[in-house]
Write a structure and sequence with these properties.
The chain has helices spanning about 10-25, 35-45, 60-70, 85-95, 110-140, 150-160, 180-185, 205-215, 230-235, 255-260, 290-295, 300-305, 320-330, 340-350, 355-370, 380-385, 395-400, 410-425, 430-435, 440-450, and strands at about 5, 25-30, 50, 80, 100-105, 170, 195-200, 240-245, 265, 275, 280-285, 310, 340, 375. The protein has about 450 residues and is an alpha/beta fold. The protein has four domains: about 5-135, Response regulator (Rossmann fold, 3-Layer(aba) Sandwich), CATH 3.40.50; about 150-315, P-loop containing nucleotide triphosphate hydrolases (Rossmann fold); about 315-400, Orthogonal Bundle (Helicase, Ruva Protein, domain 3); about 400-450, Homeodomain-like (Arc Repressor Mutant, subunit A), CATH 1.10.10.60. Strands 2-1-3-4-5 form a five-stranded parallel β-sheet, sandwiched between helices. The chain has a five-stranded parallel β-sheet with strand order 7-8-11-6-12. A two-stranded antiparallel sheet has the order 9-10. Helix 3 links the parallel strand 3 (about 50) and strand 4 (about 80).
């Protein structure tokens, strides 16, 4: 049941409408003019207002305007009642914020349907506001799991930088969680409810990168059967995360710089630039200052990216976070009933972790899958290290052994890739160079084999 305020100077119409809506289960408050209607609105706080357009004194347009001035009244729908000759006024009322209008004379079914639609819309809007509030509360909880002062300092910097609409460069070794930092910057920013678009600059072939980033028009090149907006425009209003920005082809660096400076994007084959609004967060595990010195990365683009730099420390720099991360991954991988001994946790804390948090997560999942019971101890780690070494400071010699002749060709390829990734601490660029293949080919194989 809803409380409905009916404002109309026609006594007969008020009686009929009041009867129809009361019969439908609603409570109806009646007013014969705008002044009395506004008084009732302020006292009774109705869920819906039905008001005539033409009334002596305060007319329907003025009622609409004053209703919107009441505190917390912006969500109350207003339906205007009008005769044929005042349809233009009714349309003007809708532009001013009315939900819709009813043209006199109207039948009871039309009245009931319009009222139910207005009330349903208000309920949906209320649900949407509540969901957005809950989502906003959840997005303010950073996904960084830590107890160390070093990571607490990083979290404080993230919270400080996130509300400022500036470009951020996130640096750190592979596997440290740079994408989590980028996501946190988005979630804590005013753009939190808009798109978060990720582009791995090392995973897209160089000849496809331009159209992937900037979009293209139909017929711009062979195979362009339809236009595509590109990733930059896909992040409209939100955040664009360019991972491994150091891999961006040199030919595209000035084009990206122009987008950042002008906020205009030129699609491939397009005749005019398109305005864009997004925030850029870039990440790299390379030394961009060295790349600038070597001429492999534009200095002007580098300075445009590094408005604020956030350095994500390697896991070995905050070993006190290893136990809490380990327990987090244990729960994540379905090991709620699994307990880890203190001796094993101490062993894990002193490992060098060249693959950082990603390596820790990988080891956790493997130990849980291959465990012998519900208690993980040092024997489990020793058994795993002996069978299929996890990357440690001394594991390179172990991984260099001959591959068994019993493996199939796909299994040989998979194991060769796995060992290269272990040997290079999860660094895909170095592993690809070791394997003698382009980086995007390695990325395809990693996805293919689930590595």
């Amino acid at each position: 049941m809803a409380r409905i305020l009916l404002i109309d100077d026609d006594h007969s119409l008020r009686e009929v409408v009041g009867f129809v809506l009361t019969e439908a289960g609603h409570e109806v408050l009646s007013a014969g003019d705008g002044q009395e209607g506004l008084r009732l609105f302020g006292v009774e706080q109705p869920d819906l207002v039905l008001t005539d357009i033409r009334m002596p004194g305060i007319d329907g347009m003025e009622v609409l305007r004053r209703v919107r001035e009441f505190p917390a009244a912006s969500t109350v729908p207003v339906v205007v009642l009008t005769a044929f000759g005042t349809v233009e006024q009714a349309v003007a009322a809708m532009k001013a914020g009315a939900f819709t209008y009813l043209l006199k004379p109207f039948d009871r079914d039309e009245l009931r349907l319009t009222v139910e639609q207005a009330l349903r819309t208000r309920a949906l809007e209320a649900d949407n506001r509540e969901l957005r509030r809950l989502l906003r509360e959840r997005s303010s909880e950073l996904p960084l799991v830590h107890v160390s002062p070093l990571m607490a300092e990083l979290e404080a910097r993230i919270r400080q930088v996130a509300p400022a609409d500036v470009t951020v460069l996130v640096s750190g070794e592979s596997g440290t969680g740079k994408e989590l930092v980028a996501r946190a910057l988005h979630d804590l920013s005013p753009r939190w409810d808009r798109p978060f678009v990720t582009v791995d600059c090392g995973a897209i072939p160089a000849d496809l990168m331009e159209s992937e980033l900037f979009g293209h028009e139909r017929g711009a090149f062979t195979g362009a059967h339809s236009a595509a907006p590109g990733r930059i425009r896909g992040a409209e209003g939100g955040t664009l995360f360019l991972d491994e920005i150091g891999e961006l082809p040199a030919a595209l660096q000035p084009k990206l710089l122009r987008v950042l400076e002008s906020r205009l994007v030129d699609p491939v084959g397009g005749s005019r630039p398109v305005p864009v609004d997004f925030r850029l967060v870039a990440a790299t595990n390379r030394d961009l200052t060295a790349a600038v010195a070597d001429g492999r990365f534009r200095a002007d683009l580098y300075y445009r990216l590094e408005v604020v730099r956030l350095e994500v420390p390697p896991l070995r720099a905050h070993p006190e976070d290893v136990p809490i991360l380990w327990e987090h991954f244990t729960r994540l991988h379905g090991g709620e009933k699994v307990r880890t001994t203190a001796d094993l946790l101490r062993r894990l804390q002193v490992r060098p972790w060249p693959g950082n948090v990603r390596e820790l997560k990988n080891l956790n999942q493997r130990l849980l899958v291959l465990r012998r019971g519900d208690v993980l101890d040092e024997e489990d780690l020793d058994r795993l290290d002996g069978a299929a070494p996890v990357s440690t400071a001394g594991s390179e010699a172990q991984t260099a052994g001959m591959l068994p002749d019993t493996l199939s060709l796909p299994e040989l390829e998979k194991e060769r890739i796995r060992r290269a990734m272990v040997r290079h601490g999860g660094n895909k660029s170095r592993a690809a160079a070791d394997l003698g293949v382009p980086r995007h080919v390695l990325l395809y194989r990693l996805r293919k084999y689930g590595l």
